[in-house]
Structure formats: structure tokens, C-alpha cells
């Protein structure tokens, strides 16, 4: 349990975060691929900022925002009676912010490479923009979706700084595998840290290798 508990919690966090990011990241990626507004670079910079910001900086401001006195956290306390910080729900929100660019950018690149003529042909034939998006844009951009899903999942799985700042280290609720490894190293329990690290490395390798295989087969079609 000491080994697989944090790993299973990390997988749960990665699955929930990835599902949320597909829902919110798809319209963001589509809008960024289609808009010609002048402030598009500013929106792209905001989306990509978690890539370059130190996780502790991002985690610090998320801690303030989601805390009981924060703009979002205080509203959540009034609604549910519980705090977002140091909870699984808070980890999901923080992970969505932290992994957002890894979901949006692959999908945006796929949308931008779509042949515009096919969409325009569908609109000419009477298809609504939503119908054309679902029946043409999404199937043709499936490689971008696969990449976004896998990268978001893998990135969330290896989080440390953000989850430590927002979730702390509560066994069974916020103690994900990266924090468990850190704890074992701090206590000089290198055998347990080595075991968890190998498990995480192997899992990440399988996930990424699967993505490359799927994308290769998709391109061969």
C-alpha cells in the first residue's frame, strides 16, 4: 500500500485532470487556431506561461487564490463548507492550470493544419459550424488530441512543486507519488524511493511509447 497508494492517487489525479483539460482545452485551442484578433499573442502567452514559470511560483499564487481567504477559495468554502487547499479537488484545479499548455498546444497545432477548404465546403452544404467541427475538424485532428491527452496525463503524473504547495502531503488524499518519493529521500529510505521512481519511469515510458505508436499508425492511414 505504501508503494501503490500514492501511485494510484497520482493516476486518479492525472485521469481527472486530463478529462477536464480535454473539455476546456478543445474550445481554447480551436479559438486560438481560428482567431485573428490582435490580443491573440497575449492569450497564447497566458496559456503557455506554466511551461516557463517555476512550479513553486505558480503553486504559491494558486495557494492564495484557492485558499479560504482567496477569491475562489472563499466562494468554495461558502458553497461546500470545506476548503479547496489541501484537498483532491484543489489538486485537480491546480493540475489543470499547470498542464493546460500541454493539452492546448498540440490540439491548436492540429487545428491550424486542417485544410480550410473542407470546412468551407461543409458550411456551403448547410452544415452548422458545430456540425462541421465535430464531423470534420475533430476526426482530422485526432493526432493532436492523442498527443494532448497523453502529454497532459504524463505531465500531471510527474507534478511536484504545484501539488506540494496546493495539496500538501496528506496520505490517501494529496500524497501523490512524486511527494512520496521526496519523503523517502528525506528519510534516507532510498530503497523505497528507488522502487517508486522505477515504477513512475516505467509507467511514463509505456504511456509515451503508446502515444508515438498511435500517432505513427494514424499518420500511416
How would you portray this structure in words?
It is built from eleven helices and no strands. The chain has one domain (about 5-220): MetI-like fold (Orthogonal Bundle). Helix 1 (about 5-35) packs across helix 5 (about 90-110), helix 5 packs antiparallel against helix 8 (about 140-155) and helix 5 packs antiparallel against helix 9 (about 160-165). The chain is globular, with a radius of gyration of 20 Å. It starts with a helix and ends with a helix. The protein is mainly α.
Key structural traits:
single chain, 221 residues, mainly alpha, MetI-like fold, 11 helices, 80% helix, globular
CATH domain class: Mainly Alpha
Distance between the termini: 43 Å
Q: Remind me, CATH topology?
A: MetI-like fold
Helicity level = over 70%
The secondary-structure element order is HHHHHHHHHHH
Query: What is the approximate shape?
Result: globular
Quickly count the helices. 11
Structural class: mainly alpha
Low-confidence stretches: none
SS strand fraction? under 5%
| CATH architecture name | Orthogonal Bundle
DSSP strand count: 0
CATH superfamily: MetI-like
Number of domains: 1
What's the Cα radius of gyration? Answer: 20 Å
Instruction: Summarize the main sheet.
Output: none
Mean of all residue-level pLDDT scores? 89
